[in-house]
């Protein structure tokens, strides 16, 4: 067996999260600002692997016979607990590396499903398919989670966006979703009503995006956050970033479960003022890198 190396990207939800867990719809895209990288080396031990990599190894072994010993090591600069899909990126990079080393060819769907299996069944994370579908295809996607359908959208239709990242890590996504999932499983009508509202919201946002109607897209992003806030408790740092964006004329919503906010500026002249105030509050502002750099 030869050494192998693989990567996976973080993702940003434009509209639709967290309805993917509940059979909703979503729009989301990968970004190239950071990466999770996993190295497979037959010459090193697996003894010191973190639980996440051990779980990825176990799931891979259920799909393909592992003949030789190897170790997995990782490097990831994806911000921790920022709602950017960092854990799923690390799992996916590990599965890709093991696939390369063993001559196992993933389809995007089998890779996404295996990643979700690692997280749900072996790590106990409450999660939906959105992150994994985007990360497996590495495309800007419209996704229907009840119909199991995706459509690749032109990423150059996205308007000017920023990602704001708190200096304090957000909460683990599983702990964020657990109480809502419990209510959903009991048939709570409020949960169903809110989750049902995401489907038409995503379609409205998709139509607006493709038509270049940035004002309506911004309204959809704001509405996405309000729907979430009607069910989930919003972390103080997350709410502060949302408020900061709105003070400067930006639509804003969480990128994922918390720790990072996606901002769409309706008045671009406000970008510099927003960035100055954010820096003073210890908030990092990043322009999403939508394309891979050509070296």
UniProtKB/TrEMBL annotation:
InterPro entries: GHMP_kinase_C_dom, GHMP_kinase_C_sf, GHMP_kinase_N_dom, Glucuronokinase-like, Ribosomal_Su5_D2-typ_SF. Residues 54-131 form the GHMP kinase N-terminal domain. The keyword ATP-binding applies. Keywords: ATP-binding, Nucleotide-binding. Residues 207-266 form the GHMP kinase C-terminal domain. One of its GO terms (molecular function) is ATP binding. This is GHMP kinase N-terminal domain-containing protein. It comes from marine metagenome.
């Amino acid at each position: 067996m030869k050494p192998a190396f693989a990567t996976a990207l973080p993702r940003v939800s434009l509209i639709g999260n967290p309805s993917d867990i509940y059979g909703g719809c979503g729009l989301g895209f990968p970004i190239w600002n950071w990466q999770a990288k996993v190295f497979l080396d037959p010459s090193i031990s697996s003894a010191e692997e973190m639980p996440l990599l051990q779980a990825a190894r176990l799931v891979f072994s259920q799909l393909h016979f592992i003949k030789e010993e190897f170790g997995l090591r990782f490097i990831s600069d994806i911000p921790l607990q920022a709602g950017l899909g960092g854990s799923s990126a690390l799992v996916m990079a590990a599965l890709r590396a093991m696939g390369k080393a063993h001559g196992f060819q993933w389809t995007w769907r089998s890779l996404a499903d295996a990643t979700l299996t690692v997280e749900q069944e072996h790590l106990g994370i409450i999660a939906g398919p959105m992150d994994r579908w985007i990360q497996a295809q590495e495309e800007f996607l419209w996704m229907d989670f009840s119909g199991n359908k995706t459509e690749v959208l032109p990423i150059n239709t996205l308007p000017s966006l920023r990602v704001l990242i708190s200096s304090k890590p957000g909460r683990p996504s599983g702990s964020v979703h657990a109480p809502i999932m419990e209510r959903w499983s009991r048939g709570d009508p409020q949960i169903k009503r809110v989750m049902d509202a995401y489907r038409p919201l995503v379609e409205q946002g998709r139509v607006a995006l493709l038509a270049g109607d940035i004002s309506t897209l911004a309204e959809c992003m704001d509405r996405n956050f309000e729907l979430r806030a009607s069910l989930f408790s919003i972390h103080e740092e997350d709410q502060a970033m949302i408020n900061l964006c709105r003070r400067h004329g930006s639509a804003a919503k969480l990128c994922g479960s918390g720790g990072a906010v996606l901002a769409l500026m309706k008045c671009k002249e406000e970008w510099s003022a927003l960035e100055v105030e954010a820096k003073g509050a210890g908030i990092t502002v990043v322009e999403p890198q939508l394309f891979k750099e050509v070296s």
